[in-house]
Structure formats: structure tokens, C-alpha cells
């Protein structure tokens, strides 16, 4: 079959790959079989080969020959996820731009494993057993085109050093990271997304200069950590900041003093109390559109809420009443969530005039003209439960 370009044998019961395949192949898919062995000419000596899919098999290191891609240097996509590999395969094709090694048993990346992959743009290493000792300063340094790196669900205790400066998206969630040092991220000037959720970070584990100079960094996930306060030195141009499910007890005056571009802030499910929220804590957040304070210990709405927010969530707190003027000036508000608090009849304005009760569905989903009139009613009278 000298003209065969595409071969799809996924989802079968193959235990061995064919010893010889046609040299004209462009794409081969052996995913979801029971493969334990690949031969030298299964994929070797195929100059037109561009993509190889081997995920969800039973391949171990012994089943991959060192010469697996000899004469096939143009392979661009290699998917080896969900196998039993303990080492990165040797002599990977230099044209690779996408390499998937997730869901294996990798404990260490040997020196030079990626040194020939200057075209690589996406590297998936999540769900392995990588430790700090398994990565050195030069593990990634030759990956000058790498934009997407996923190291989530490993055994790292700190952010690795020597990360590629070309990175745009960095996954480090679901490790055991306790430290973000001063100079490990700052060289990555192209970084836009940083995902550090579900680690063991405390506020003092994040160096105040850890994000300095990262002008493109706009999305930061720090939820499910052990932060007892808002970390200092937040990225100045961050637009989405997720700090939910931590142990934060208060918000200081300077915590968000430099995050002028923040649009979405999620502080839900912490331990924030009303007296510990400084009245000027949100004064600089003039672009903020969504603020989530749900699941805290607020008994009153904090003073100085950002006036331009469209969405305000204060669900599952301890609010028993809303003081007069608590929402004054928030003309841009479109959605207000007060579910699961302790509000009772006439709790919103203790001595306000009587009015017709407005149901929460009406309040949230009324037309624009209706909604404006409802806000006026709510600010002037008490609601039935």
C-alpha cells in the first residue's frame, strides 16, 4: 500500500504495533489499544509522517526503541499520554510542536531530554510523579518556542527555575508548592495565565517581587491554598484574580492599591469578617465588574464597595440587615446575590416606608427598564422574606 497516507486503528485490541508501515504515511492513530511494543520501522523512515497518536495504551520504556523516529524527523504531533513511561523517550523528532506525556509515571526529566525541540509550543506533563529534584535549571531552557506548559498534578514543592521565557500559559495547580521565589517567574515577560490553585501556598511563601515586570499577566488562580491574607506584590495588570477557598481574614487598605486593571475578583469562602475590611480597600478598583464575597463571615456589607461593579455576590454570609445607603451610588449593578443569609422582614431599611414586595427572580431577571425601577424601590423600602 505504497500510497497510504492515513491509518486509523484506534479503539481495537492490538498488543503489538505492526513491524512495518508504508513510507508514505502522514498520520497514524493507534490510541486506546493494548500496545506494549513499537518497532524501529513502525514509525521510522517515514519523511512525510506528521502526527502519531499512541495514548491510552500499555507502553513502558522498554517498548519504545531509541530508533523509533529515525528517518522521520518531520513529526509535529506526538501523543503518548496515559501509558506507563518512566522516562522521556529518546531522540524525539526536532520538528515537534505538540508533545503529550501526561498520565504516565515520569519522576525525572533527564538532562537534554528536550534540548533538540526548539519548535515545541505545547508540552503536557501533568499527572506524573515529577519532583523538584526531577527538574534542573536546564530542563526547559532550550524550548525557545514553548507557549503552553502543564506541570499540574505532580509532586513539586516550588515553582521550577529555568522556565522558558516564551511561556504564555503555565499550569502548576495540584502540586505541593509552598514557595514562589523572586526571580523564577519575572523573566517570563510573555506570561498571561498563571494557575497555582490547589497547592500549599501561604502569603509569606510568595515573594513580594515574584510578579514584578509581568505586564501581560492578566489571569491568576490562587484558590484552594493556605493564604491567610492577600499576598503582596500582585501583578499590576491582573484582570482576573481568584483567591477563593483560602484562610483570608481581612482586606487591608493597600492589598489592591496597585491592581488598577482588575475586572473580576473572587474572595469567596475565606474567613473575612466585616470589621477587617478596610473602607478604602477597593478604592482603586474602578474597572472592577464582578466581586464575589460569598461564604465568608460578613455581618454587614463592607463600606466602600466598588461603585462600578455589575455583579455583587454576598451569598452564605451572616448578614442580618443592610444599612441605609449600603449600596448607594452603585448605579451599574446588574446582579445582586444575597442568598442564604439571615435577612428578615424590614431588614434592609429599618424605618423605611411600606412598599410592594419584590421577589428575587424579578430583581435579577427583570427587563432593563423594570430593573431600574426595582432598584429604586429596594433602596427606599423593606423587602418581605
Describe the structure.
It is a single chain. Strands 1-2-3-4-5-6-7-8-9-10-11-12-13-14-15 form a 15-stranded parallel sheet, with no helix packed on it. The relative contact order is 0.05. The protein contains 3 helices and 15 strands. The protein is mostly loops and 385 residues long. InterPro entries: Leu-rich_rpt (IPR001611), Leu-rich_rpt_typical-subtyp (IPR003591), LRR_dom_sf (IPR032675), SLRP (IPR050333). Keywords: Leucine-rich repeat, Repeat. This is Podocan. It comes from Chinchilla lanigera.
Largest sheet: spatial strand order: 1-2-3-4-5-6-7-8-9-10-11-12-13-14-15
What is the strand content? 5-15%
What's the N-to-C terminus distance?
A: 76 Å
What Rg is obtained from the alpha carbons, in whole angstroms?
27 Å
Class from helix and strand fractions = little secondary structure
Task: Summarize the main sheet.
Answer: 15 strands, parallel
- Fraction in helix: under 10%
Q: Quaternary status of these chains?
A: single chain
Which regions are unreliable across 5 or more consecutive residues at pLDDT < 50? 352-385
Shape: elongated
- Annotation field: number of helices: 3
What is the N-to-C order of secondary-structure elements (H for helix, E for strand)?
Answer: EEHEEEEEEEEEEEEEHH
Mean pLDDT: 90
Q: How many distinct beta strands?
A: 15
Amino acid at each position: 500500500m505504497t500510497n497510504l497516507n492515513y491509518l486509523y486503528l484506534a479503539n481495537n485490541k492490538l498488543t503489538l504495533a505492526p513491524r512495518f508501515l508504508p513510507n508514505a504515511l502522514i498520520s497514524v492513530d493507534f490510541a486506546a489499544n493494548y500496545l506494549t511494543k513499537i518497532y524501529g520501522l513502525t514509525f521510522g523512515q517515514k519523511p512525510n509522517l506528521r502526527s502519531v497518536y499512541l495514548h491510552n495504551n500499555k507502553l513502558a520504556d522498554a517498548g519504545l526503541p531509541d530508533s523509533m523516529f529515525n528517518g522521520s524527523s518531520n513529526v509535529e504531533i506526538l501523543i503518548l499520554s496515559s501509558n506507563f513511561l518512566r522516562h522521556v523517550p529518546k531522540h524525539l523528532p526536532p520538528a515537534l510542536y505538540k508533545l503529550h506525556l501526561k498520565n504516565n509515571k515520569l519522576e525525572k526529566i533527564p538532562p537534554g531530554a528536550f534540548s533538540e525541540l526548539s519548535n515545541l509550543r505545547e508540552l503536557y506533563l501533568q499527572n506524573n510523579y515529577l519532583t523538584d529534584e526531577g527538574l534542573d535549571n536546564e530542563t526547559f531552557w532550550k524550548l525557545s518556542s514553548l507557549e503552553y506548559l502543564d506541570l499540574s498534578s505532580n509532586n513539586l514543592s516550588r515553582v521550577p527555575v529555568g522556565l522558558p521565557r516564551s511561556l504564555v500559559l503555565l499550569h502548576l495547580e495540584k502540586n505541593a508548592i509552598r514557595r514562589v521565589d523572586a526571580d523564577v517567574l519575572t523573566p517570563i515577560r510573555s506570561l498571561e495565565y498563571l494557575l497555582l490553585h490547589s497547592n500549599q501556598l501561604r502569603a509569606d511563601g510568595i515573594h513580594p517581587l515574584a510578579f514584578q515586570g509581568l505586564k501581560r499577566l492578566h489571569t491568576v488562580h490562587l484558590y484552594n491554598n493556605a493564604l491567610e491574607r492577600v499576598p503582596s506584590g500582585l501583578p499590576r495588570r491582573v484582570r482576573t484574580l481568584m483567591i477563593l477557598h483560602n484562610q483570608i481574614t481581612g482586606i487591608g487598605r493597600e492589598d489592591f492599591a496597585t491592581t488598577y486593571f482588575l475586572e473580576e475578583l473572587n474572595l469567596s469562602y475565606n474567613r473575612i469578617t466585616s470589621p477587617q475590611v478596610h473602607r478604602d480597600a477597593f478604592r482603586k478598583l474602578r474597572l472592577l465588574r464582578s466581586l464575589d464575597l460569598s461564604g465568608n463571615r460578613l455581618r454587614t456589607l463592607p463600606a466602600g464597595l466598588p461603585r462600578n461593579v455589575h455583579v455583587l455576590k454576598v451569598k452564605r454570609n451572616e448578614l442580618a440587615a443592610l444599612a441605609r445607603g449600603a449600596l448607594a451610588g452603585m448605579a451599574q449593578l446588574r446582579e445582586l446575590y444575597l442568598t442564604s443569609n439571615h435577612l428578615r422582614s424590614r431588614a434592609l431599611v429599618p424605618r423605611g416606608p411600606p412598599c410592594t414586595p419584590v421577589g428575587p427572580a424579578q430583581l435579577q431577571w427583570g427587563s432593563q427598564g423594570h430593573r431600574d425601577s426595582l432598584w429604586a424601590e429596594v433602596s427606599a423600602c423593606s423587602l418581605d422574606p
